[in-house]
Q: What sequence folds into this?
């Protein structure tokens, strides 16, 4: 049987103005099938993060798309977000689960580390993320997560696995059958033809590969 196409996982830019960005996000979610949105706002205060969450959550929930916050599980709890994604490791994972409950989504970025991924899985992560899978400004080629890592996870553990960092349509195609989700983020928001075109390019690539 053909491998299923990975679902799209949308990460926000690191810097944006919440009110106008909410409109842009709505257009992207209406144009492509997105499984989850990760809100990340670098350098934001707690108040700014919660304001952004309150602006984006209704946009996501109106379309039955989950929204998780990066790292700050307390703000996720306060704003009614669906969970938290730990981009800086999983040290607070157990505490977050106890506070947010069993129904909350908890994901963990693990770089290319099997050890970190196993720890996250043992602590009850709903998914783990490996990456970068492609070129990034600060990443070295030897630090990238390759297809073999995703295949190892699929053979070893049950929680879904997400590909993130430096994703291109070509890399997304190469991960069909190995990754359950692919993260579309910074490159999509900077796409020369706009974010809708960027998201659709990845979506079309994985669908075409899955059908091949």
A:
């Amino acid at each position: 049987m053909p491998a299923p196409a990975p679902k799209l996982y949308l990460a926000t830019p690191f810097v944006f103005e919440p009110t106008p960005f909410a409109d842009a996000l709505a257009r992207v979610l209406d144009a492509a099938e997105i499984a989850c949105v990760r809100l990340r706002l670098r350098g934001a205060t707690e108040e700014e993060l919660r304001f952004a969450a309150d602006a984006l959550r209704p946009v996501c929930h109106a379309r039955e798309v989950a929204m998780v916050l990066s790292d700050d599980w307390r703000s996720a709890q306060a704003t009614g977000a669906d969970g938290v994604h730990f981009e800086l490791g999983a040290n607070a994972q157990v505490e977050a689960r106890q506070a947010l409950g069993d129904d909350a989504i908890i994901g963990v970025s693990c770089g290319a580390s099997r050890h970190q991924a196993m720890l996250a899985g043992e602590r009850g992560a709903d998914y783990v993320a490996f990456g970068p899978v492609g070129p990034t400004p600060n990443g070295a080629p030897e630090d990238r997560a390759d297809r073999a890592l995703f295949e190892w996870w699929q053979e070893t553990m049950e929680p879904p696995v997400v590909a993130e960092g430096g994703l291109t349509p070509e890399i997304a195609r190469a991960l069909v059958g190995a990754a359950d989700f692919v993260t579309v983020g910074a490159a999509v928001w900077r796409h020369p033809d706009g974010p809708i075109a960027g998201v659709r390019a990845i979506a079309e690539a994985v669908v075409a590969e899955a059908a091949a």
Observations:
- The two ends are 11 Å apart (CA to CA).
- The first helix runs from residue 18 to 31.
- The mean pLDDT is 95.
- The chain is about 45% helix and 15% strand.
